[in-house]
Amino acid sequence: MEVRGLSSSGTAAPVNRVAPAPAAGQAAATGPVAVRDEVEISAVGRILDDASRTTGVREQRLAEIKAAIDEGSYETPEKLEIALDRLLQHLGGEEMAGR
To answer: What sign for the dihedral angle of Cα 21, 23, 24, 29?
Structure first.
């Protein structure tokens, strides 16, 4: 048998044998690996999940706050000062993180 390539000069070229295919067991060992999705819940996520499960305590606290607001004793100058300090600390922390 004579095989000529595209750029052959007319001389005969040997035909090489193809290597045999690997056995079925070998193909499975070198085949693609199944990808698994993973979910990681942060510490904050776990805290929020726990907080959502304790509805009785939260509902009681909300009822107390609503009653205090209705009677006008909830908003005190001290509480507003604390809230403003926390807001400024939070905003200052964001500015530092953005730099």
So the answer is: negative
**DSSP codes of every residue in the chain:** --B--TT--S--BPPPPPPPPPPHHHHHHHSPPPP-------HHHHHHHHHHH-HHHHHHHHHHHHHHHHHT-S--HHHHHHHHHHHHHHHHHHHHHH-
What is the mean predicted confidence (pLDDT) over 51-60? 76
Domain boundaries defined on the chain: 43-98
Which range of 22-26, 28-32, 45-49, 86-90 scores highest in mean pLDDT? It is: 86-90
